[in-house]
Each structure stands twice: as C-alpha cells, then as structure tokens.
Design brief:
This protein is α+β, with helices and mostly antiparallel strands. It is built from eight helices and four strands; from the N terminus they run H-H-H-E-E-E-H-H-H-E-H-H. The chain has one domain. Helix 1 crosses helix 3, helix 4 crosses helix 8 and helix 5 packs antiparallel against helix 8. The chain is globular.
Length: about 220
C-alpha cells in the first residue's frame, strides 16, 4: 500500500495565502487550517524521520514536541525589525546536534519549506571565532581527511577577503580556510516535498552531507 505524503499542496497554499495576508486577524481566522495542513503534518514528519536520522548520527535530535522542539516558531521576532509582519512565510525545522551532558554546540541539520524555496542544510552558519579557529585548525592538521570531505560534499558559505591570521596564502585549502561558514545543502522541488518519498529523499540528503558534519563535530572534539 502506498503511504500518504506528510506535506500536501494545501501546505504550500496556506503559506502562499499567509504571505498575502500577513496579519494577526487573518491568521486567527485561519488558525485551524494552519494546525491541520501545516503544523500537525510537520510534527508528524519530525516524529517519523527521527529513526532515519538516528542511523546517520545518534546525536542528531528530532524532537516532535509542539513547543521547544525541532519545529521552529512561525511567529517572527519583530522587536528590532523594520518589517513588522508577525508571521514567517516558511516552515523551518532545526535538527540540533546534542551530546548528553555536553553543552558544546555541534553541527546540526536544517529543513526549510516555502513556496518555491525548499532545501535541507547542515553545518555551521556564522559560528563564533572560537569555533572557526577549531575548524580551520582541523583542516590544517588533517588535510587528507578534509580532502575526502570536499570530494564528496560541496561546501558553501561566505568567505574572508584575505587569509586568516597565521595561515599561508598558498595553502592547498586556502579558499576553504577563508570561509566564515561551513554549510552543505540540497534543494527540493515542491512536488518532491509533496511526495510520499520525501521522507526518504530528505534522509538521503542528510546522509550525503554527513561527511562534513562528522568532520566539523570531530573538530569540536565531539563524537559523530
């Protein structure tokens, strides 16, 4: 028997309508619709994909709690923004990397679903200088391992204009060492997201970028 998809055309239709009616009155009138076609399917997806992510790493957490878990809030933080639209027009999932008893920030996974923009990502985005220093030191210390990573994974992110302090401009991996982010991603079409196979497609994308996450985790002294 063919399984049912987690996400439907109604999921994306709600987000399209929200973008055109981004105000509290409209959202209040459509709250039940949001719950049925967006929030509940998203929470079920998190619960169902958890065992698949656990096979990639037991430290990647899929938390299906309605609040405080993997599903990010749809409410925007407008305190310091000129844009006072109260709601996000995308649905975001943050699959955090957590080692019990260890507060060190590890490389997690992310899923972004919006009309015309669906993708998965993983790694470090805008890490602090201490994290960057550890990642760069790991690349310098273990060039063969890093070479294997970049042969399998396309690593993106913004870069410094000049080499970091203490790193030679002619280093084999100078362009990687100049990066301020270490991110890998995979894009999906809306038809893919609305397919019963999407849970497998997402897990496969996460698996494909896992060599980068493993290297970054090890750079932080964390298990993978």
């Amino acid at each position: 028997m063919k399984s049912e998809p987690h996400f439907t055309k109604g999921f994306f239709k709600f987000l399209t309508d929200l973008a055109a009616n981004n105000d509290r009155d409209w959202f209040k009138e459509n709250k039940d619709r949001y719950e049925s076609v967006v929030r509940q399917p998203a929470l079920q997806f998190i619960a169902d994909v958890g065992p698949r992510l656990e096979k990639i790493s037991p430290y990647i957490v899929a938390d299906p709690r309605p609040s405080g878990g993997t599903l990010m809030r749809i409410y925007r933080d407008i305190r310091f923004s000129k844009d006072k639209s109260p709601y996000k027009t995308h649905v975001a999932f943050g699959f955090d990397y957590k080692v019990p008893g260890n507060q060190v920030h590890g490389p997690g996974l992310y899923l972004h679903l919006a009309p015309g923009q669906c993708f998965a990502g993983g790694g470090f985005w805008r890490p602090d200088n201490a994290v960057l220093a550890k990642v760069r030191s790991a690349i310098v210390a273990r060039p063969k391992e890093w070479k294997k990573v970049v042969s399998k994974v396309s690593v993106s992110g913004e870069s410094l204009k000049r080499p970091p302090a203490g790193i030679a401009a002619d280093h084999e991996f100078i362009e990687d060492l100049k990066k301020k982010d270490f991110i890998a991603s995979a894009k999906f079409s809306q038809s893919q997201v609305c397919s019963p196979n999407f849970i497998s497609d997402f897990a496969a994308a996460c698996k494909s970028i896992s060599p980068l996450l493993a290297f970054l985790g090890e750079a932080m002294g964390l298990p993978w």
